[in-house]
Design brief:
This protein has 15 helices and no strands. It has 423 residues and is mainly alpha-helical. It has one domain: Na+/H+ antiporter like fold. α2 runs antiparallel to α15 and α3 runs antiparallel to α11. The longest helix has 37 residues. It is globular. The termini are far apart.
Length: 423
Amino acid sequence: MTFSDLVYAGLGVGALAAAVLPRVVFSRPFSMPMVFLAAGAAVQLLPLPVPVVDPVADRLWVEHITEVCVIVSLMGAGLAINRPPGLRSWAGSWRLLGVTMPLTIVVTAVLAWAVLDWPPAAALLLGAVLAPTDPVLAAEVRVGEPTDAEEDEDEVRFTLTSEAGLNDGLAFPFVLAAVALAASAGTGWSAGWIGGWVPSDALGKVAIGAVAGVVVGRLLGWMFFRARAAALRLSEHMEGFVALAATFLSYGVAELLHGYGFLAVFVAACALRAAERSHGYHKVLHEFTEQIERLLTAFLLFLLGGYVAGGGLAALTWQSAAVGLLLLLVVRPVTGWLAQLGSAAGPRERIVTAVFGLRGIGSLYYLAYALGHDDFGGLDRQLWAAVAFTVLASVALHGVTATPVISRLDRLRRKTGPGEPPP
C-alpha cells in the first residue's frame, strides 16, 4: 500500500460522506462540519502516515484553497437569495454591516491588545480576520435554494446569509489596515498609514469590486437569458458548471482592476439572479455551487481537525482562548443586538440573528493572506492558534444549537406570525 492509495481511498470516503451526511444530520443537534473536524482529528491520531498541513509552513497553499472555497460559497449565497437588494428590504443586513462588523473589529482588537498584550497591528488583524461570518458551517441558518417567491425567506436566514455574503468582502479593508499598520509602525503605533488607506483600501477598492460585480453579473445575465445566439443562451442548456465561470470571471476581473474580488462575486451573483429572478436555471447553478462548496468545506475542515490534533493549538493560551469565547458569547451577541434596535424584526428574530454569527473559512483565508505580507512581530503561530480555536468553538457551539433553536423559531413563527411573541 502506498500513500497515494490511501489518499484516493480517503477522498472517495470523504466525497461520499459529504453527500450523505447532510441528510443524516438533518434535524439533529450536530452538523456536517462537526463530523469532518472530528474525522480529521481522529485520522491524525491513528498510526497512519498522514501529514499535518501546517498553515505557517504551507501558508500559500492554505491561502489559495480557502480563497476558492470562499468565492464559491459567495456565488452560491448570492444566487440563493430571493429578495431584491434595497435599502429597506435589506435593512437588517445594512445594520449588521454598518454597526456590528466595525464594533466587533474594534472590541476584539482592544481585547487582544489589553488581554493578550499584543501589538496594535496584530490585535487589529485578529479583530479583522474574525469579523466575517459564515453560515455555510450551519446550514440551518442560511437561506435554501432559489425560488420564485421573495416572501419565502424568513428574516433570520435572509439577514445572516446576506450579511455573510457582503462582510466577506467588506472585512478586507480592515485586514489591509492591519498590514499597513504593521508595515508603518512594526510593533508600535503610527497614524501615517491612514491617509493612503482611506481613499485606496477603504473606498476605492470597495467601489471597484461593487461595480465590477454589477457589470459582470449583468453581462452574464444578458448572455445566459437574452442573447440572440442560441449557443450563448446557456440557460436553455441547464449546465451547472457555468456557475464556476461566473465565479472566477467576476473575481478575476475585480482583482485585475485592484478591487475586492469577494465583494464582486457576491454582487455579480445578485445581479445575475436579477436578470431573470424566477428562472429555473438559477436553481441549477446554485445546486452546482453548493456541491462544490460542500466538498471544499469538508476537505478544509478535515485538514483543520488534523492540524489541531497534530499540535496546532500548542501556541494557544488561556487568554487567547478567552478572547475567542468572548467574541462568540458576548461581543457578537451584544453588537448584533445593538445593531437591530428599532428594526422591524421581532425580539426573538433579533436574538437569533445576533447570536448566530458563525466564524469559518473566511477567517482562515484572511489570516493566511495577511501573514503573507507581514509576520506581525513573530506572532504567526499564536494568531493561527487563536483563530483556529475560535473557528472550532464556533462550529461546535453553533452546530449543536442551530437545529433546535431554528426549529423552535420556525414553530413559533407558524403559530404566531413573524416577530410576534408566543402565546
